[in-house]
Amino acid sequence: MFDVFLGGPWEKHCQIPYKTLLKVGLPKASFYDPESVGLDWFDRNLDALRRSQVMVVFVPSFPMPGVGPEVGIYYEHRVLMGRQPHLVVIWPDDVAPKWGQEVLGRMGRIVGTVSEAVRAVAGILAGGGHDTAAALVADGVQGYDLEIPE
Predict the structure, then answer these.
(1) pLDDT tens-digit series, residues 87-96
(2) CA-CA distance, 59 to 69, in Å (whole number)?
(3) Residue 147 belongs to some domain of the structure
(4) Which residue in 2, 32, 118, 149 has its CB near the most CB atoms, within 10 A?
């Protein structure tokens, strides 16, 4: 089981290192990152989506990567299993179209920065009885300046 599934573009194609910042901000969390799996990711992603407590997605300022289907699979699986879906979407202010926020906002929480995502994930994991929740909140949120650089 993973604490967090990292969805969105590969970091080298993104304007900020959001995956790195999430991992620094939540050092005790276990992450599944499709980027680290390589080219044989599809079947592994499906399994990891089923076994992740939280999904964090970064919406880039270029055409959306293939996370739309992953978000749907994660959301549907959690609902069918009778579990609360915990989707956190990082949507920077400069990303359009804004109506996309309304759609994804019905499935999860929209945040504007990686720092907000770290706080949201730490809160979700802490509220879910996660055995490292206190450490996640104490070590992962406080003491890091994770705001998106201008």
Answers:
(1) 999 998 888 8
(2) 14
(3) no
(4) 118
